[in-house]
Design a protein that fits this description.
The complex is a heterodimer of chains A (about 110) and B (about 120). Chain A contains no helices and eleven strands. With about 110 residues, chain A is an all-beta fold. The relative contact order of chain A is 0.33. The model of chain A has no long low-confidence stretch (mean pLDDT about 95). Chain B is mainly beta. In chain B, the strands form two sheets. In chain B, strands 2, 4, 5, 6, 9, 10 and 11 form a seven-stranded mixed sheet that branches. A four-stranded antiparallel sheet of chain B has the order 1-3-8-7, with no helix packed on it. Chain B starts with a strand and ends with a strand. The chains are: A mainly beta (about 110), B mainly beta (about 120). Chains A and B meet through strand 4, strand 5, strand 9 and strand 10 of A and strand 5, strand 9 and strand 10 of B.
């Protein structure tokens, strides 16, 4: 199985300041079709997860442009340019390049 | 509107059986994979398995193979997750999610079904 490791576990951030979350996979996420199926999910308290970013860097419909994704191969990053109160929650990276699909352990973003 | 609507919360005793559901609407249900994800209280997300309702092709995580059964009835656009004998450790929130064709990302999520197993 591909292991997804996220850091940090928790990220206290001041409103309006940036936040960055790292995700590392135990093997390359480049699929044989050339795509890299790495996505990012946001889970607000008491809510189901929500798709933010797909295939490394593509923002899903309705996702604010303060969210951005980058990376390649085994190292990926989610950045929030200016954290707002509604961004509080847990963020997960997930890979769908290989079965079984796997998730990172999650990073909690909270306001200082 | 594209949505997945899950069945309501369940409270069961150890050893009982259970089948929860996930009904899709607003899109071609047979054309997208539907996955199931477990979230134990206060914990992260775990991928359990996935089914393609068009032909019922099903894949399981090794961690859940033999522990649960995933199925679908395309005539009513509904996917299912079932247990034959529940354990206390099955207490969790269970989400279904649609896998977006061509992008392999879970783009639509159900609201979740809380399953509590307690004697």
């Amino acid at each position: 199985d591909i292991v997804m490791t996220q850091t940090p576990l928790s990220s206290p951030v001041t409103l309006g300041q940036p936040a960055s979350i790292s995700c590392r996979s135990s093997q390359s996420l480049v699929h044989s079709d050339g795509n890299t199926y790495l996505s990012w999910l946001q889970q607000r308290p008491g809510q189901p997860p929500r798709l933010l970013i797909y295939k490394i860097s593509n923002r899903f419909s309705g996702v604010p442009d303060r969210f951005s994704g980058s990376g390649a191969g085994t190292d990926f990053t989610l950045k929030i340019s200016r954290v707002e109160a509604e961004d509080v929650g847990v963020y997960y990276c997930t890979q769908a390049t290989q079965f079984p699909l796997t998730f990172g352990g999650g990073t909690k973003v909270e306001i200082k | 509107e594209v949505q997945l609507v899950q069945s309501g919360a369940e409270v069961k005793k150890p050893g009982e059986s259970l089948k929860i559901s996930c009904k899709g609407s607003g899109y071609s249900f047979t054309s997208y994979w539907i996955g199931w994800v477990r979230q134990m209280p206060g914990k992260g997300l775990e991928w359990m398995g996935i089914i393609y309702p068009g032909d019922s092709d099903t894949r399981y995580s090794p961690s859940f193979q033999g522990q649960v059964t995933i199925s679908a009835d395309k005539s009513i656009s509904t996917a299912y997750l079932q247990w034959s004998s529940l354990k206390a450790s099955d207490t969790a929130m269970y989400y279904c999610a649609r896998q977006w064709y061509g992008h392999n990302a879970f783009d639509i999520w159900g609201q979740g079904t809380m399953v509590t197993v307690s004697s």
